[in-house]
Amino acid sequence: MSTLRFILGDQLSRTIPTLDDLDHDADTVLMVEVMEEATYVPHHKQKIVLVLAAMRHFAESLRAEGIRVDYVRLDDPDNTGSFTGELERAARRHLPDAVVVTEPGEWRVLAAMEGWRRQLNIPVAIRPDTRFYCSRNDFAAWGRGKTSYRMEAFYRTWRARTGVLMEGDAPLGGRWNFDADNRKPWPADRAPPQRLRFAPDAVTRAVMDLVATRFPGHFGDLDDFGWGVTRADALAALEDFAVHCLPSFGDYQDAMRTGAPFLYHATLSPYLNAGLLTAREVVDRALEAFEGGTVPLNAIEGFVRQILGWREFIRGVYWLRMPGYAETNALAATRGLPTFYWTGETAMNCLHQAITDTKRQAYAHHINRLMVTGNFALLAGIRPAEIEEWYLVVYADAYEWVELPNVHGMALFADGGLMSSKPYAAGGAYIDRMSDYCGGCAYSPKVKQGPRACPFNDLYWAFLIRNARALSRNPRLAMPYRTLAAWDQARKDGIVARADRFLDGLPTGYPATMTPPA
Ligand code: FAD
Ligand code: DLZ
Ligand code: SF4
Question: Which residue owns the Cα nearest ligand 3 atom 8?
Fold first, then answer.
């Protein structure tokens, strides 16, 4: 019995179920570099480099174990360009008795996988992905009967189930949530920490050349590529984070600072999502640091919440609600995406900084994603599909299972509150409090009208006015709606007119230098 074991670019884990029961003598592992995966959205150049270089290294590590690997490169002249085409070709080469895969991270790919049995005419086993704390079935059981899902409730249940940061039935330290301690702005005199980055090796440099030649019109710079591409790199990044950054992770979790995109964040999501690290080993290493006494409770709880809470919850919502989840547009948002999302060329310094960091590093931390680029898209009423595509393109860690609920549900409220109790809408004062961006901006959050007025302020109030029917009864928005109720109609009309004038003046669509999606 020979089995063809197909491993995708975000399944680079030795523990991937595809490799369970591998027969070294009879089986072949298949890995394929295909144009379809690089172009179904025009991914950031660094994301393509990271995935392809990590795939090549992973294949080598399997070969070093004596495993037979059939690896198809992007520039193979016979490459058909798709998972399905390459699997068909490989099945003709190897004549396997069966194919084994692990469920993918995107609905689009699962739909293709489900056709493989018929197309290949041999058994195809799609195994559940066991690299998460919460299986799709367990999440479905937890969500049964609920009309909305809340991360906090999920997180408490899973803390109790796993025993992480628990003292018997109670949360360690007497509280489930230390978020209130985790909102310190970055002190002006504090230097950002030096972060561990990785110099590209020969394999990575060859992929960088390939990407520069084949995808010149994709978003993003290659010059600063510093991501790890091997399991050893990912473990080193985890170690560096646990020792040097985790102790301060909580305090400055929401802070933003010019020219310092990483601060004390883990920068581990590209490795977790590609499979170079598992959630359990990241949480276990963080807990070990906490037990060693170097990490305060607000930091470890804040970090565990991100992985055991948010990451698992987001994945659960994606698989429970897809494919219909992507189709909702609760706030009827229809504007095109401003061109500055691709170029970074805008006088709004917060957006300029967040987008420039993103171009340079294929990274921005959570608050930049949520409260700068996400907040603008929410307030401006950008059509969900357009801004969702942007998020899927620009980040090294972006795969639809994690990108979509974060954007559609958390940033845009396009699901009407299925996973958030209110939209994350904010004016300029929030960005001013949490960053140093406003100091270097052509606008000021303190100026309410005229050419220096921060556009976020009118956009914020105009958003609430426009969406009053959908949002004014939300108890968590009672305060701003009370403020609005005290304003006369002429004042409100003026705000909406100024906001519309500002938005109507923004060019939309891809710049001429970029490749639109295939
Ligand atoms: P840290 O802040 O140090 O957090 C530690 C880890 O927790 C991360 O590595 C990540 O695995 C996990 N995590 C934290 N928050 C979330 C979350 N909301 N959802 C899922 N995992 C989380 N994350 C992605 O991995 N891919 C995406 O495509 C993605 N798109 C996002 C889009 C928007 C609009 C928003 C608001 C958030 C998005 N996130 C996404 C979540 C989060 O911003 C990133 O996981 C985080 O910035 C990654 O950097 P880090 O490793 O330094 O994270
Ligand atoms: C993101 C990506 C890219 C750019 N290229 C490949 C590839 O050539 N081969 C591959 O197996 N995977 C690639 N990936 C990751 C896939 O897009 C990812 O595995 C699917 O979206 C399923 O989650
Ligand atoms: Fe952003 Fe407004 Fe601050 Fe400028 S003034 S950086 S636009 S929040």
Answer: 428
